[in-house]
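Box 3.1 A note on notation
Throughout this textbook, protein chains are presented in two layers. The first layer is the amino acid sequence; the second is a token string describing backbone geometry. Keep the layers aligned when reading.
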Amino acid sequence: MAKTIMIVDDSSSMRMVVTIALKGAGYNVLEGRDGQDALAKLNGQKVHLIISDVNMPVMDGISFVKAVKQLPAYKFTPIIMLTTESEESKKREGQAAGAKAWVVKPFKPEQLLGAVQKLCLP
């Protein structure tokens, strides 16, 4: 059975690029336009991994990670931050919130898929 990954990014073109890479590798994909939209879609279904942007309107990625970690069903779901932010302070903030990996845009699909394969829950 294919694993499900949620991609959260306010850029539809970025969601499309990531979705194509993930589906090409055999994953099911859920999409969220921002943190709030993504939280609304986390309705108890199994999600093996979340990939989230940091800078988004409505609810940014760090706030989204903190909110996800409060949900019992998703407390242990690994989260990869996919962002243009490369500052150490932002990375530390993301890790403190619960992010497991940090991939900087622009990224190579193989780089992202490598992180996904390492972190995806069984």
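The chain has a mean pLDDT of 95. The chain has five helices and five strands.
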